[in-house]
Amino acid sequence: MILGAILAIWLPNLMAAIISMGIVGYSLALSFMFLGAPDLAIVQIIVETMSLIILIAAIIKTTEKDTPDEKKLSRAVLYIGSTAFFVVFLLMSIKVFYQLPPFGNPALRMASDYIASGFEKTGAPNLVAAVILNLRGYDTLGEVTVLFAAVVGLVVVLRKTGRKR
Amino acid sequence: MVYILPIILFLVGLFGVLVKRNLIKIIISVSIMDYALFLLLAMIGYRSEAMPPIEVKGIEYVKFVDPLPQALVLTAIVIGLATTALLVGIAIRIYQKYGTFDIEKIRKLKG
Fold first, then answer.
1. Cα-Cα-Cα-Cα dihedral of A69, A75, A78, A79, to 10°?
2. Contact: B74, A40; criterion CB under 8 Å
């Protein structure tokens, strides 16, 4: 998965980069299956397919070539600086991970309540759907609002007729 | 220390956002950062030897995977798709106006 991500960043052809991003997305769906989240895997496969279609349509409409990287001092400084920043970030995040619950044994604060009484409260056989649509319905309302705003923005950006100047 | 994997994935995406000059590459990097966060959240909710939180008639399960991060990640995946679509739309518009995906050339061409 990390290999696919590195390929997606590094490959000079944009089509190949998008296909490598597809590798990352589908292996993410696979790891969701292993992490006990089949709903997430299904949604991830659908969403990944749609975003690949969108990106490839954009590529076909415009160009396939990546912009070449010129050899300049500022670029080298940028590469070195970002690498140093990443090392610092990694060390910091390792410290943070000791605060998280250990892998495979999460702290169930809200979720223990949901697991205990979610089936009786909602009548849904799938607890994830019950949490999304019933127990945390306002979250889903906000999500739909964001989705609507994004679609309206997309339509406004891509419309054919603009204001005459 | 399995949590190091999504962090490395996140850093690869961040590297792409900081270093690359092509707009499509930047969009791909943003999506990769998205995926890293989803993976981290799904990992936080995982319990070892637990079943997915789906009730099957006639079988009694004791341990379920935490459903709350899964629900939130499900929301976030859909929003990530909307974000990608919006970014691609803006990138197509920029290409129609300037004829390039290079952010430095776009900065130089005013108006």
1. 60
2. yes
Q: Which domain holds residue B74?
A: 4-108
> What CATH number corresponds to the domain at position B69?
1.10.287.3510
Query: What pLDDT digit, counting tens, does each position of A64-99 carry?
Result: 666 666 667 777 888 888 888 888 988 888 888 787
**pTM of the predicted model, to two decimals?**
0.84
Q: Is A10 buried (19+), middle (13-18) or exposed (0-12) by CB count in 10 A?
A: middle
Helices (H) and strands (E) counted in chain B, each on its own, are 4, 0
Number of domains present in the structure of chain B:
1
Enumerate the residues of chain A whose CB falls inside 8 A of the CB of residue B102.
67
Q: Which residue range(s) make up the domain with A150?
A: 108-165
Selected for mutation to probe chain A from B1, B5, B11, B90 (highest A CB count within 10 Å) is B11
Q: For tokens 């006639």, what's the residue?
A: B58
Of B23, B14, B17, give the one whose Cα is nearest residue A55. B23
Contact A106 B46 (CB under 8 A): yes
Q: Which residue of B has its CA nearest to A70?
A: B21
| R_g of chain B computed on alpha carbons | 20
